[in-house]
Design brief:
There is one protein chain. The protein is built from twelve helices and nine strands. The chain has 330 residues and is α/β, with parallel strands linked by helices. The protein has a single domain, classed as TIM Barrel (Alpha-Beta Barrel), CATH 3.20.20.
């Protein structure tokens, strides 16, 4: 059975400030819990006016405090930006506060530009140590040894589940080697999805955390009452991707009636390449799209991004997705 989860971008919009974005993310989690979603994650992004989840562990705590059973986590922490010891402390503390509900997905991208990376005081080549950093993080979350002098307090022994995030074959190979669950970011990097999943499954080595591969597939899904309305709602995300290419990351913008007036042919080609696996439409369209994606990928779990400008409308999209997935017996 394919589980459904949510990646919340904690969007700051032209009408909602950072506090509103954080409260909206918490409200999404409350509804998602009632609708049967397995987990909700937030991601580390820095120096982006339109995303309020830079202090990722704090946001995880905010969401977890407003919910009761849904798993809450990072999708992900960009580990090269941090000392593994500090991340263990943060997420081990979260695990103490919300036992059995915290996930820790880690990636090796900076989650920002090179100028901001310098402000984080991390060397540009820090990503080269990612495999060793994952092992160090895992060790700090494990039970402490009898002669262990450095402990991540209160993290040691919490064994917070680790996930490897990726958009290339590198993450797939690492997740397989370490026997960890793997989440592929096909919601913005769809090209290598199938090769990465094949590598992950074929090379997987069982571990104490996981005895068989568990593959999560990121996917943009915009659901509405009609295909036309869903396509209109999807223009918010299309404009966001266009703005990335323009070097003009800003606040989330309301949908427009004609996206062709916003982007150039080259920008359209770039954006739609990154959004190639998006599912946009009515309940029937979304149901068939989800069915096809699960059949093609064999995904154990879908991590859904429903990047819609209006909060109430986004809730309705996520409700539709949950309903159609339930009727499809995913």
């Amino acid at each position: 059975m394919t589980a459904l989860s949510i990646l919340d971008l904690v969007r700051v919009t032209q009408e909602t400030d950072a506090r509103g974005a954080l409260n909206n993310a918490r409200d999404v989690a409350v509804h998602a819990e009632a609708w049967g979603y397995r987990r909700i994650w937030v991601a580390e992004h820095h120096n982006m006016a339109g995303i309020a989840s830079a202090a990722t562990s704090v946001v995880v705590g905010h969401i977890a405090a407003g919910t009761k059973s849904i798993r809450v986590g990072a999708g992900g922490i960009m580990l090269p930006n941090h000392a593994p010891y500090v991340i263990a402390e943060q997420f081990g503390t979260l695990a103490q506060l919300f036992p059995g509900r915290i996930d820790l997905g880690v990636g090796r991208a900076p989650g920002t530009d090179q100028l901001t990376l310098r402000a984080l005081r991390r060397p540009p080549d820090a990503a080269e140590n990612f495999p060793q950093d994952v092992l160090e993080l895992q060790a700090f979350l494990a039970p402490a040894g009898p002669n262990q002098r450095i402990k991540a307090v209160p993290a040691y022994g919490t064994e917070v589940p680790l996930w490897i995030l990726g958009s290339s074959n590198f993450g797939a190979m690492l997740a397989a080697e370490l026997g960890l669950p793997y989440a592929f970011a096909s919601h913005f990097a769809p090209e290598l999805l199938l090769p990465a999943l094949q590598i992950y499954r074929s090379r997987f080595k069982p571990s104490e955390q996981l005895d068989r591969p568990h593959a999560m597939v990121g996917v943009n899904i915009i659901a509405a009452e009609s295909d036309a309305e869903a396509r209109r709602l999807a223009t918010t995300q299309q404009m966001s991707f266009t703005n990335i290419f323009r070097g003009a990351r800003g606040l989330s913008q309301p949908p427009i009636d004609d996206i062709e007036t916003y982007w150039s042919p080259a920008e359209k080609s770039q954006a739609m390449g990154m959004l190639a696996r998006s599912i946009v439409g009515s309940p029937d369209t979304v149901r068939s799209g989800i069915d096809a994606l699960v059949t093609e990928t064999g995904a154990d779990e879908l991590m859904i991004v429903s990047d819609i400008y209006d909060h109430t409308t986004r809730l309705r999209s996520l409700e539709i997705i949950a309903n159609v997935a339930g009727s499809a017996n995913l």
